[in-house]
Design goal:
The structure is a homodimer.
Chain A (H helix, E strand, L loop, with lengths): L3 H15 L8 H8 L3 H13 L3 E4 L5 E4 L8 H9 L26 H18 L3 H5 L4
Antiparallel strand pairs in A: 1-2
Helix pairs in contact in A: 1-3, 1-4, 2-3
Chain A binds a DNA duplex through α3.
Chain lengths: ~140, ~140
Amino acid sequence: MLSKKTKYGLKALTFIATRESDLPVQVSVIAKSEQIPQKFLESILLTLRKSGILGSKKGKHGGYYLRMEPLDIKMTDVMRVLEGPIAMVPCVSLNYYEKCDDCPDEHKCSVHKLMIEVRDSTLKVFRNTTLADLSNTNG
Amino acid sequence: MLSKKTKYGLKALTFIATRESDLPVQVSVIAKSEQIPQKFLESILLTLRKSGILGSKKGKHGGYYLRMEPLDIKMTDVMRVLEGPIAMVPCVSLNYYEKCDDCPDEHKCSVHKLMIEVRDSTLKVFRNTTLADLSNTNG
DNA sequence: TATTAATCCTATCAATTTAATAGGAATTAC
DNA sequence: GTAATTCCTATTAAATTGATAGGATTAATA
């Protein structure tokens, strides 16, 4: 299941990307429009900012803005920040590889191969999708 | 993340498929060989039996066996039984469709389209993979 | 400079899900 | 009748997720 964190994050990014103006957008505005608990959204946007996808401006008239054009924000990056590794098992993760604790030999593991295929096919989708694609409502 | 339930289930199925004999395999044998907690595995194999993928024989010399040839056991079916819906959000699930509780209009939802693509690409993998593929260790 | 409005940060909590365990009932082979 | 097995239900412990709380920090502006 996709976590609410990721779902909310994607919706918020889409919301920001769809704005005409370049002015920072307040959390409260996004929360109200997208019906997301504000405090929860705050923490999500903070994560996105720390990862470099969003920038922020503090104080009055502050808020969040995109650091790049929507066309240059790939889903691979967004999903990794919000949802974590794309692979379903650590032993096939490209960016967060770890030996599975319950698996003596991953080369003999029947699950391993299958999960590599799933990872690759999912990666293909995320690599070919940018925030601009999400924002395009005529889809 | 892939649940342990699914991982254990796939390993157990592979174990059974790889046996030469058609005799039922005891839970204890699989548990020991694959290093899976026996009681946990018991409940997993029970689920697989109830779903029709495995058959069982009770009593002495009892155990579990495949109801079909490995080549005819598709990952779509196995994954749905063990892991649940393949879609990451209920609103794009083919077999378990539900409206997302936090989404007023899924046609305007930017996440929806992305999740359809992910679903389709994952489905493609699972539809093209059978238990026979998992069992083939020369892969 | 004081006020207001915003992000930033840390801690906590409640609910859910997952992983595992326990104990025994039912069934079957021998 | 005994031993070995699946079957069933209930319980528990740990981890994760979703959400909340409270206040520190920063910046605009009157």
